[in-house]
Every structure is written in structure tokens, then in C-alpha cells.
């Protein structure tokens, strides 16, 4: 898609040849396979060429190849933005909901109910299913961020994030929580608390390196960021020495198994 779009753009920007650009773009469309690709092509037909026949053609193909909730939501958005057709948009959104399988599916479906139809009650129903299917720290942190981003509901966001913390076990769980506190409005105290937990459970230099990155990204805390990076370097050195020592134990042996 991107290559065909770039070639098409060149014909327009450099040679002002919209007809040739259209033919090239059509050739790219004919090679498209996924619903996401057809959605992208439909968008370009609409914005660059104002070819509504091309938009509808790609939209039909996007529906024919739709496999995920996000595919159907993209179709729903096109029906609304390009044709102002609420009936078709609603049909696609309901299909998205029908095939939703995981937390992400329910999150994007809830968002669509709000952004396309301003239907908070249906969006909340999706969030309830989202929570019912949440089982990991990542699920609950995503749920927390959804409540904050879609509904601006800080109380529900904190409730889900506290659930994520309740089941957190390892370092990555805790820095995931720290990042969610960052996403839900900068709460420095909570971010630091989660990062301290992440540090206490860090088992590898990769853990410490990532924690150092979050100190810098989330808090602009250069002192603690550098401290974690130094600790990561020390842990990496120790891990490499252990690997080297384990290898040297067997270096003098010539194993020749003959069964």
C-alpha cells in the first residue's frame, strides 16, 4: 500500500498527472489482500481523488476480507465519514461486537460506540465484558487506560489498575502498572511506587534497563534512570561471566557418543 501510494503521490506532486496517479493507485488496490489494506485504499480514494465509486468498491472488499473486530470498526468509520450512513455503520459495529474475542477487541468496540454514536450505555456494556475477560496485568492495565481515555472516568480507571497491581508478580508486571499510571494522568507518587516494586523484583539486566528508561520517560528522573542503567550494566556483566564460566567447564572435553 505505502509503495503504491508514494508512486501515486509522485505523479501528482511532480508531474501534476492525476489520471496516471489514479491508474497506479488502482493497480496497487488490485494487489491488496487484507481488510486493513482495502480500508487504507478507500481512505485515499476519498481524500486524494474524491472518487466515491473507488471508496465504495474498497469498502465492500474491506468487509469481504474482514476477520477481526478492528476490521469491522474501520468499515463502520468509513460508512460514517464518507457516506454518513448510520445504518451501515451500525451493522458493521454490531459485527465487530459479535466476533470480539479479547480485551483489545472490546476496547476498540467500546471506543467506537462513543466516537461514532455517542452511545455510552453500549460502550459500558463492552467494558463490562472487557473486564470479565481480563485475567492478566496487561489486560487490567489496558482496561484502566480504556476507562480513562474513552470515558475520562478516573475512578473506574484506578479500580482496574489496582486490580492489575493486586495480581502483579514480576518486574514487568510492575513497570506495566507504572506506565498505566503515566497514561492515566501523571501521578508521580504511584509511578515511583510501582517502579520501586519493579526494581525489587528485577531478575535480569533487561528488567533494570527498561526500568531506567521508564524513570526517564515517565518522570524525567535522570538520577534514578542512570542508577538503573548502571545496575543493568553490572547485572549484564555478571550474567555474561556466568555464561562464560559454564562454557569453560566443558571446554576441555571431547564428547563422542557412539551408540
Plain-language structure description:
By secondary structure, the chain is mainly alpha-helical. Helices cover 81% and strands 0% of the residues.
Binned strand content:
under 5%
- pLDDT average, as an integer? 89
Report the order of strands and helices: HHHHHHHHHHHHHH
Structural class given helices, strands, pairing? mainly alpha
User: Rough shape?
Assistant: globular
Ordered list of secondary-structure elements with their pairings:
Elements: H1 2-15, H2 18-31, H3 35-49, H4 52-64, H5 69-83, H6 86-99, H7 103-117, H8 120-132, H9 137-151, H10 154-166, H11 171-183, H12 188-200, H13 205-219, H14 222-249
Helix pairs in contact: 1-2, 2-3, 3-4, 3-5, 4-5, 5-6, 5-7, 6-7, 7-8, 7-9, 8-9, 9-10, 9-11, 11-12, 11-13, 12-13, 13-14
Brief summary of the model shown:
This protein has 14 helices and no strands. The chain has 259 residues and is mainly α.
Structural features:
about 260 residues, mainly alpha
